[in-house]
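Milestone M4 deliverable, item 7.
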Amino acid sequence: MNIEKNQEVAEIFGKTGEEKPKHLQFNKMLTFRVVPAYLKEIEKVSKIKGVSVSKLIRTYIKEGMKRDGELTDREDKEFSVGQ
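Output delivered:
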């Protein structure tokens, strides 16, 4: 029975992206806190640009990584900021 369970777990961890169960997809998420004053400013910019706060933050992260040379061209194409 343990062998079957181990094979099942190995299959799950071998999957990528949306193939994984939701509780395993979030293992590589970044979480951080923003002080209320910064959040208000970020919300203002997101309204001006017509994007969500989340997308704006992801875009800033991606642009910073590109500027710092952290992303190769291939990685840049794979790094999607989504909706």
